[in-house]
Amino acid sequence: MAGMVEDPTQSVIDTIMAHMDALTPKGRILGNYILQYPRKAVFMTTKELAETTRVSEATVVRFVGQLGYEGYGDFLQALRDHVDTGLSLPERVELDGMTGPAGDRFHRIVLEEMNNLRQLYEHIDSEALSAFADQIQKAPSVCVVGSRISYTFAYYLGWSLTKVRKGVTLIKGSDSAAIDWLNNAPAESLVILFAISRYPTELIRLGKVARRLGHTLFVVTDSALCPLIPFAHRHLVAPTKSFPLVGYATAISCVVDYLIQELAGRDGDELKKHQDRLEQIYRENDILFDMHTERMD
């Protein structure tokens, strides 16, 4: 029976190199091919990889098990994460499926997001999800941080959290004042940092600052290779199977939706008081359109 990869944050390439001496001769043929052509291998089935390297499919399956992966799908996900970190924008455009008729492209994108959701459903760490919700509920103060595309998710979670609790601060990582906001946050705040490939260095810097300031750092990311994971107190990976041109939104949006609904289902009377106050403020300041009171001219 296949074991588990000893360090899931280690690149699959490093894992292959570490096991190379212990592999069979045919296993080394596979390993050398993947080391040389990872961007080709990542799109291959077991049959295609076996035919390309002139070994049997059984050899491919044994090779994956020797590396510590539970199955070929887990191996491909690890290889996908490795390849994704090194793809430039021009290289992403050249990937299969990025070009073609607009109608075909739309259906491809929808199918890719459906596959990404299946990947999330089958591989999400449910215990980590629950622990995230627990910490958000207990934390005296929460800072939500994102930068570039990940700011989209940070804003979504930060704005949504204001509907279920107090003490939430939204921080834009690309703002030079982000460090000031972290420094001014209450002691032992919970810092939730969204980091999406291709991982802006400013977020890595802010993650290190949050740790030095004594805050609790939680990282939500799309890959086990995220460079913030090694110094986070806890992390949650929302994996995707496809290679995005810029980014895929569905998987991490589902994580945000879960966290908000989970928290909303826990707080009972306290939540109702908080939301009643919000609704009163909305009415007094005419914040939201009300179909029952508005009249069309």
TrEMBL record:
List, alphabetically, the SUPFAM superfamilies matched: Homeodomain-like (SSF46689), SIS domain (SSF53697)
| Family annotation (CDD domains) | SIS_RpiR
* A Pfam family per the record: HTH_6
Highest taxon of source: Bacteria
What range(s) does the HTH rpiR-type domain occupy? 10-86
Going by the UniProt record, its keywords in alphabetical order are:
DNA-binding, Transcription, Transcription regulation
GO MF term (any one): carbohydrate derivative binding
Protein's GO biological process: carbohydrate derivative metabolic process
PANTHER family per record: GLUCOKINASE, RPIR-FAMILY TRANSCRIPTIONAL REGULATOR
This protein's name: RpiR family transcriptional regulator
The organism is: Desulfosarcina widdelii
